[in-house]
Amino acid sequence: MEAFLIALLIAATPLLLAATGELVAERSGVLNLGVEGMMLMGAVSAFAVAFSTGSHTLAILAGAGAGLIMAALFAFIALFCLANQMATGLALTIFGIGLSGLVGQDFVGQPIDRLAQLQVETTAIGRVLLSHDVLVYFSFMALIGTYVFLNHTRAGLMLRAVGDNHTAGHALGLQVRMIRTLAVLFGGLMAGLGGAYLSLAYTPLWGEEMTAGRGWIALALVVFATWQPIRLLFGAWLFAAVTQLQFYGQDWGIALPSQFLAMAPYLATIIALVIISQAPSRSRSVTPAEIGRSFRAER
Fold first, then answer.
1. Nearest CA to 201 among 56, 79, 80?
2. What SS3 state is found at 206?
3. Residue 44 in contact with residue 199, Cβ under 8 Å?
4. How far is it, in rounded angstroms, from Cα 49 to Cα 55?
5. Maximum Cα–Cα distance across the chain
6. How far apart are CA 59 and CA 293, in angstroms?
7. H helices within the chain, ranges in order?
8. Residue 227, SS3?
9. What is the Cα–Cα distance from 205 to 199, expressed in whole angstroms?
10. Count of beta carbons in the 10 Å neighbourhood of residue 187
11. CA pair distance 47, 53, nearest whole angstrom
12. Is 139 exposed, middle or buried (0-12, 13-18, 19+ CB in 10 A)?
C-alpha cells in the first residue's frame, strides 16, 4: 500500500499542475482545449534541455516557457483576433502534437537522470509524504495559492467577475482582455510544467504523444471539481488512483483484463462527466457564465 500511495501522488502531479492552470483560465471565461498540446511541448522542451545541459532547473524552466509560448499563441488568436476558442484550442493541440514529434525525433529512446527526490528515512507515512521531487510539492503550493488568489484577493475577484460577466466588468473599468490573457498564460505555464514533469520525473524518457490524453483528463477534472481548487486535488487523486490500477490491480488479485485496466482512467472520466450532467441546474450555477465567449469591447 505504501508503494501505491507514493505512485498515486506521482501520477496525480501532472494532472494537478495542468488542471490548476486550466481552472484559472476557465474562471476568467476562457476555454482552452489546447492543454494536451501545451503539455507535449513542455515535455519535449524540458527533456531536450535536460539531455543537452544536464540541468533539471533549466529543463523545468524550458518546459514552463514552452507552455507559456503556446498559451501566448492561443491568447493572440482567440482573445485578440476573436477566433472561436474551441476551434483554436483544438488546433493548438494538433499543432503541439505535430511540433513536439518533430522537435523530439532525435531524442526518442535517449536516457536522462530522473528529477532528484528527497531521501528521508522515516516512518511509512513520512516516506509517502517526504520522498518526492520539487514539482510534486510545487503542485500543492500552486493549488493552495490559486485558492487564496481566487477567493481572498482583489485580483482574484476581478478575474472571477470577468468570467461571470465580461460586459459588466468592462463597464466597471476592468481590462477584460488583459485579465484573460494573464489567466491563459498562467494556464500555459502550468500545463508546460505538467508536461515537463512527465519527461523529467514520471518517465524520464521522451516518446511521441507521451501525455496519453492527460491534457484531456485535466480539462475534465476542472468540470469534475466544479471550478473549485480544493476539489481539484481530490479529483486528481481519484483519477490517479484509477490510473495506478493497471499496475497494481493484478498484484492485488483483481481479475480484470489488462486492456480494461488501461482504459479505466478514461472510462472514469466519462462516468464522472455523465454524473455531473445529471444535475444541470447545479452545473449552471457554478460554471463561469462567460466561458468560451469572445469579448468585443464596445466602440
1. 56
2. strand
3. yes
4. 7
5. 66
6. 35
7. 2-27, 35-53, 56-75, 85-103, 124-129, 134-152, 154-164, 166-171, 176-197, 214-224, 229-248, 258-277, 280-286
8. coil
9. 6
10. 31
11. 10
12. buried
| This prediction's pTM | 0.92
Query: Which of 190, 214, 206 minimizes the C-alpha distance to 64?
Result: 190
How far is the C-alpha of 198 from the C-alpha of 43, rounded, in Å? Answer: 6
List the grid coordinates of 208: 511521441
Helices 229-248 and 2-27: angle between axes, nearest 10 degrees: 140
3-state class of 108 per DSSP?
Answer: strand
CA–CA dist 48, 101 (Å, integer)? 12
- By the 10 Å C-beta count (0-12 exposed, 13-18 middle, 19+ buried), 85 is classed as buried
What are the C-alpha distances in Å from 169 to residues 164, 228, 230, 296, 298? Answer: 9, 21, 26, 12, 12
- CA dist 146 and 21 (Å) reads 9
CA–CA gap between residue 19 and residue 35 (Å, rounded):
9
The one-digit pLDDT tens for each residue of the chain (299 residues) are: 777 888 889 999 999 999 999 999 999 999 999 999 999 999 999 999 999 999 999 999 999 999 999 999 999 999 999 999 999 999 999 999 999 999 999 999 898 999 988 776 667 677 777 778 999 999 999 999 999 999 999 999 999 999 999 999 999 999 999 999 999 999 999 999 999 999 999 999 999 999 989 999 999 999 889 899 999 999 899 888 888 877 676 666 666 676 776 777 778 777 877 776 776 655 555 789 999 999 987 64
Residue labelled with grid coordinates 477567493: 151
Quick check: 229 and 23 in contact, CB under 8 A?
Answer: yes
Residues whose CB is less than 8 angstroms from the CB of residue 7 and which lie 6 or more positions away in sequence, other chains included: 244, 247, 248
Q: To which residue does cell 494573464 refer?
A: 182
